[in-house]
Design goal:
The protein is mainly α and 577 residues long. The chain contains 27 helices and 3 strands. It is found in: Membrane.
């Protein structure tokens, strides 16, 4: 997933996890119950991609106004920014369990509001509710799982939350496909998210609060009782002692850097090592979004229609490829991140992303250049319904399908019975769309018939393959390792906000960019952003593989350079002697 995080977990940890779950099923109940928040996170960010196609059909304003489509998609991201910010405060004030219950209530409310929405603004309201839940879930679910899990298998259990995020995205595409022929289509797609929210709410009522939060609030006996359900009896007191020391250290850190957010941010940027860590952490988070990943996750069926696949159902079905590859890639990342290193995987991933974006740009350029011409006779075949802009054009013989579908023309293209032969440019109405389809022709409003369309699907798939194991997960790993201990909370928070904000900018502008630059120009623009991201990663981000937190801090204190060997544990140790 693009906005979450998958903590490191090696094969040994997964083996121990499997063994521990068999011995103590309560552990997996706890992790999966909290992990449903991750599933909802993935589902609600993925489902809109297919639902949007059918929302456009039901509401003409949405179909005609690009900004309205972008708002429906991106308001969940805007809500998530606020939800993540308030989620941190709720976690500390009222506990992890309470925060998850609040997130479930928001998920459920948002799902119901969207399902019964009588107008686009009501859908937007529901998306804001869902976004608030997504933001809280992204902050709280991994935290709850990590604090209520045995330390030896913590990484593996937190990783299940990451798998559930990408799994939720994948299932959202399957649900979209399942409801394409059902009356109410998008209402079912968006409304069904209320069911897992109710399930998680009921499960969480049966689970305890985080033992760490309870201990911090002085409820020591309650904390011990919960640890007794998780650890063997002989390990409980050792864990209590470790938790006591850890919380004491946390409070000392809070005393050193202050409790107000502004003070913490000021001190973080005032510390040399932390400031350089923030440059690296923010760099990878912003790069993760500006390679355009969420244009693919939020708009993939629309992009496939741009490539010449007119059918909503076919576009949604083909989008399953991208979502499935994203889920697989998140698993692959866990296997390779500790073997090949974070920096190397990101650089390889960025090179692959740039290549795929350039190829996609070429494919869409060729599709546009070879779009079918407009035939006067074919257009006249539909009576006095010829596109007004085409009929009044000074040189209509130069028109092709792309010009017919341009925003300034605002017409529809009815293909020839020979799909790639010159077709008709006619007024965009439901009646004419029906007349076109009645003659066994294909009706286009978003893209044109193209022999290059299948290449767009292939390169979108390749894009996900190179993105997911590298830039999809590594930025979150980097941000979990790179900050000095006393600034870890505020550093991670700043980086997460930069990620969500970049996500919002990209999702809020993608369709507008395609209108003004075309699909080819938009993907080329993202390729340019990716080149800048690659350069920034190369110069700013050190390798953290195999380094202890203190060693990473010393590398940053010295100043990282890609041309100086200073990122191995031994060399760092030598430097500090």
């Amino acid at each position: 997933m693009v906005e979450g995080g998958i903590s490191k977990a090696d094969k040994t940890e997964f083996t121990e996890c499997w063994s521990a779950v068999w011995r103590t099923p309560y552990i997996m109940k706890l992790a999966l119950s909290a992990g449903i928040g991750g599933f909802l996170f993935g589902y609600d960010t993925g489902v809109i991609s297919g639902a949007l196609l059918y929302i456009r059909e039901d509401f003409k304003d949405v179909d005609e106004k690009t900004w309205l489509q972008e708002t429906i998609v991106s308001m969940a991201v805007a809500g998530a920014i606020f939800g993540a910010a308030t989620g941190g405060w709720l976690n500390d004030k009222f506990g992890r369990k309470f925060s998850i219950l609040i997130a479930d209530a928001l998920f459920f409310a948002g799902a119901i509001v969207m399902a019964i929405a009588p107008a686009p603004w009501v859908i937007i309201l529901g998306r804001i509710f869902v976004g608030l839940g997504v933001g809280m879930a992204s902050m709280t679910a991994p935290l709850y799982i990590s604090e209520a899990s045995p330390h030896k298998i913590r990484g593996a259990l937190v990783s299940t939350n990451g798998f559930l995020i990408t799994g939720g995205q994948f299932l959202s595409y399957i649900i979209n496909l399942a409801f394409t022929d059902v009356k109410g289509t998008w209402r079912w797609m968006l409304g069904i998210a209320g069911l897992p929210a109710v399930i998680q709410f009921l499960l969480m009522l049966t689970l305890p609060e985080s033992p760490r939060w309870l201990y911090r609030k002085g409820k020591v006996d309650e904390s011990r009782d919960i640890l007794a359900k998780i650890y063997p009896a002989e390990e409980v007191e050792d864990e209590m002692l470790a938790m006591k020391n850890s919380i004491k250290e946390e409070k000392e850190i809070e005393g050193a850097i202050g409790s107000s957010t502004f003070t913490q941010i000021k001190k973080a940027f005032g510390n040399t090592a932390c400031r350089r860590a923030l440059y690296a952490g923010i760099c990878v988070q912003v790069a993760q979004q500006f390679v355009g990943i969420n244009t693919v996750m939020y708009y993939s069926p629309t992009i496939i229609q741009f490539a010449g696949i007119a059918s909503n159902k076919t576009a949604v079905a083909l989008s399953l490829i991208t979502s499935g590859l994203n889920a697989i890639g998140s698993i692959v990342s866990v296997a390779f991140v500790d073997k090949y290193g974070r920096r190397r995987l990101m650089i390889i991933s960025m090179v692959g992303i740039i290549s795929c974006l350039i190829l996609l740009s070429v494919v869409f350029f060729q599709a546009s250049a070879h779009a079918p011409a407009i035939s006067h006779d074919e257009s006249a075949h539909f009576g006095n319904n010829t596109c007004t802009a085409y009929a009044n054009a000074p040189n209509p013989s130069s028109w092709n399908c792309m010009k017919c579908l341009a925003k300034e023309a605002d017409c529809g293209f009815c293909s020839n019975t020979n799909l790639y032969a010159p077709g008709a440019c006619i007024a965009k109405t439901d009646a004419l769309a029906g007349a076109c389809k009645a003659e066994k022709r294909v009706w286009y409003t978003k893209g044109c018939p193209s022999k290059f369309g299948f290449l767009a699907v292939i390169f979108l798939g390749l894009y996900i393959i190179v993105y997911s194991p590298g830039m999809g997960t590594i930025p979150w790993v980097i941000n979990s390792e790179i900050y000095p201990l006393r600034f870890r909370g505020v550093g991670g928070g700043i980086a997460a906000v930069s990620n969500w904000t970049s996500n919002l900018i990209v999702s809020l502008t993608f369709l507008t960019l395609t209108e003004h630059l075309g699909s080819s120009g938009t993907f080329l623009l993202f390729a340019g952003f990716s080149v800048l991201g690659l350069i920034a990663i190369f110069f700013l981000v050190p390798e953290t593989k195999g380094l202890q937190f203190e060693e990473v801090e010393k590398v940053l204190q010295r100043g990282y350079s890609p041309f100086r060997k200073n990122t191995t544990a031994k060399e760092t140790s030598d430097y500090t002697k």
